[in-house]
User: Fold these one by one.
Assistant:
Number 1:
Amino acid sequence: MNKSQTILRTLFLHTPSIKAVALDEKFNVSANLINLLLGLIYGSISILYNFEYIASFKTPLLRILFVPLFFITFSIIMIYLTRVGYTLLLWAGSRALGGPGILRTLNRISGIILLPSILAFPGLVNLTINQSLLTWELLGIILSLIWIYFLSAKALMLSQQLTSLKAYIAIIMIFVFFSSVYYMILPPTS
């Protein structure tokens, strides 16, 4: 089985594939490439949603090159920071409930766990520009969170030797913490 098949099976909670990704260091490059791809996609969606703003620049060089490049670069950085943050949260959840908390393994698997977040990108971009969510964007966010939840719990069970109950509790704690930080940084507008 090649790397892309293993990653695809990992996304569908295939136990041997999740173990392979978590334990085999050959997947480090794949996880980094996935994050780069996610950053490019997120940046492209940001450009699409902010097209009027970008078009308002008078200078063609800004409008065509520098502002879109800024959106892409910022999006790539944001995806990598999200991965680092999520890795640390997985580590904290694992350690809190008795797992070994091996950062190297959690970093590798978190790069792939974030892949379903692609479904949430349009809704997240829409929220950052203070627009109301469309139904399909809200469904994308919900589906993405559910998928990431189950993928994260299964990854913790297999890579950190946690029981299923402890893994699900750890992920709930992570989601609550992540939501509270998100709320503090971007409070809802009234």
Note: The chain has nine helices and no strands.
Number 2:
Amino acid sequence: MSPKKYRQQLLDLEIDGFEIDTSTINNTMDTLNKLNELEKILSKIRYNVRADIRNIRLDYMGKLQEVDKSVNEKQGLLRRKKSVSQVIKEKKVLTKERNLTIATYAVVENTIDDYLDQIEQSKFYIKSSIQHRVG
């Protein structure tokens, strides 16, 4: 899945506008349940993002290996082998492309990690609020 779709999933969760309601015990428990559900969903999304990053790395590893194999193959009309500088240049382009692709996914993963941290802090606040009320 593309990073854009992951970002859309995060927007659909409406985490940014989430309000913590601790006015009553029932509202507090409902809020805690919603936070637990959001945490599960975010963990699944993060798992999928990490799987996509692994797949991208594997894909580019294969492409880099193909470039290595093509060193010994003759190509073109004159049947000349690729020069070392040409192979290095192709590898640099592939590596840069891979890093840029992974970076877009890393931004999504960092956003998810930030949300999970905020949820953890909110859950701590809610639990301490409950303990304070119950005594």
Note: The helical segments are 3-12, 25-69, 84-134.
Number 3:
Amino acid sequence: MKSIFILLIISLFSCNSSQESRISDSNESLNVLKKLILHDSLNQYGAISTELKTYKYFKIQYNNDSVQSAPPDGGYEWKNEEYLIEKIDLKIHFGYSVTKRHEKYQIQASSKHTDNLNLNSFNKDLLGLKHEGKDAFCVLYPPIFNHDSYAAYVQYDHFDNGYEEGNAAIFIKVKGEWIYLKRILGYITVKSKIDLQYDVA
């Protein structure tokens, strides 16, 4: 009985270790972030912040109609595994239970992940430094990978003199290359307090 208990402890420890090793692969994350910048031409609309923004995890709760509650303040950084999957609408890549657990771990540990990512390794053109000092700039979030690390969700916030916009994208790894699969609209907010928010991912 004691030996079975020890094996269970070792198994749980190895699972956590493998999860950490997957999200700590900064090269894959940096590759996805590069693809996002270039695909959406983010470096043409403002400087890219070298510091990534972290996610905030909110507890899964449902109302009487079995509809999940919205994030606490509607902020784009608030995520949980069910809310993320609902907005992505690609259960074939992100909906399996083992991937849900992996997504939850990445959201909760995003501050640890961002500490391992250094965008200073990007060249000046990629970071859009010709726009540095102007009102427009962009902040990226760390990618969230599915359990097998062949699909990635990544989002950003763009700010421009009172105009704010956030969007996301899905990338799929095909033969070693990250390929853009789908854009996910996030939000638009303007300084005049007119909230043009559409579906927040």
Note: Residues 55 and 128 are 24 Å apart (CA to CA).
Number 4:
Amino acid sequence: MEQLKELKDLNTLLKAALAVLRPKITEELVQILNGTAIMMLPTYEKGDIATFNFEYSREWLSVVFFGSNARGLTITEDISFLRNELKEYFSKVKEVMDMVEEMEDDTEEWEEMIEEYNEEKSSIYDNWFGACWEEAQTQTQNRIPAYYSDNESDLGIELLSNTIVEINKNQSIIRYYSN
């Protein structure tokens, strides 16, 4: 089916775009893990950071970092990643989705195809971010717990142990995410 090929091509484009960005994002993560890029909120010190939090938007493929203390309160300024770096990719996504939606039908096959595309896109992005973080962690040897979570999910990954954890969306550390 032609739509599927177009969607697979989008994921290939995403892989290529992320590969180019890997050194830049890895260096930004190194600066966070070393503390050089972190701006603390008033009355807090870098030594108060108990967890690093990386919350991402699947829709915009961007990440927001914030640090929390042992009580779960956000104690750092946010740091955003990938707000503008994927413009070419998103331009192509819009073009392809406009074309693909014209061919859309209401069949279960259509829904499965879109779901397969989205799952592959998420896997590509998650694996890429994990590899960037792992490389940065290896360089810094920072052992502060770090969490990677989708802004729309109650589950996340504790990056040091690579275990799935529940994220309490009622905590004040969780952000409303917009682009």
Note: The longest helix spans residues 2-34.
